[in-house]
Amino acid sequence: MLHNIRCVALFFKIKNMKKIVSVAIVLSATFHLNAQAEEADVKKNVQVAAAAAKEFKSGWTRGGFFNINASNTIFKNWAGGGSNSTGIVFNGSLYAVYKKGNGLWENYLDLNYGAVQNGSMKIDDPKGALDPNGDIKKINNPFVKADDRLVYQTKYGRKINDKINYAALFNLNTQMFAGYQADDKLRERLPVSDFLSQAFGYASLGVDYKPAKAVSVFVSPLTLKYTYVMNTRLAPSFGLDSNKNIRTEMGWYINTQVSKEIMKNVTIQSRLELFNNYKSVYLFKRIDINWQNTINLKVNKYINVSLITQMLYDDDVDVDPINEGKQMRAQWKHFSGIAFGIKFGDNLP
What we know:
This protein has one helix at 2-55; strands at residues 59-73, 85-100, 103-118, 122-124, 138-140, 144-159, 164-174, 197-212, 215-229, 246-263, 266-277, 288-298, 303-313, 331-345.
């Protein structure tokens, strides 16, 4: 009897010991996992703090990107018809941002140039010149300009709070090379535009509101818009008297910029400029507009797809100077292509 009681006691003792050991193992594992989680949180916080310190460090932040887009279409014995074409477009963007204390100085330069050759590499001489065999002479089919843009902007601001700065802004919009009418492939007539003919931009004092890192809204009640035409022959096409090369207007100005990754490897950039002359009889009605939208789809580190649309409207500009009377209409430019590019420098703050 006594032996049986001892066996039962030993059984329950062993069973309780197993429970104690099991509980001890569970508690040990829980403490170990918590320790790992706390260590991971500490590492993550250190990384975030280091990234923030790097992102908002004082001094210069410099960088940019360049890309080249090339296209080629060739038809041979194609029943559906078509025209051969070869095109190339260069895009570049540079930035230099200086931060010190509550001050932020931002500088941006955008360059775009593109040319296209439509048709065969050789075309008939439009002047009808003959070769030694008595046939119409063949000449090289020239490339014609398809895109040409130079934009520089500088802005200096002082922080009022985390989202609002008071700021001064200056920008310049022009082109790099002479432009000709679309039907003047051999450039036999005078150019209709050129470097600094025209050039326009704004000098503004106002408030810069940044509700998020990807958004900037600059509002100025005091803005000087300038239009400069270096070649006075072209002055009337851009709303200037033939003997003048500069026109200034005072008015209000809004500049909004958005740059955001809307999904993985897809980024949208939008810049909208609005200006209205205080002296205009069409105040708040005929507003000068410069609106550009860019969608970039990243394929890999070096290849991306770009979709670009730009719209300009200025009722001082004659969009068809060949015909009589001022033709005031919205100007549109579209571009799409696959490009090889490279990005360099620091990340923007």
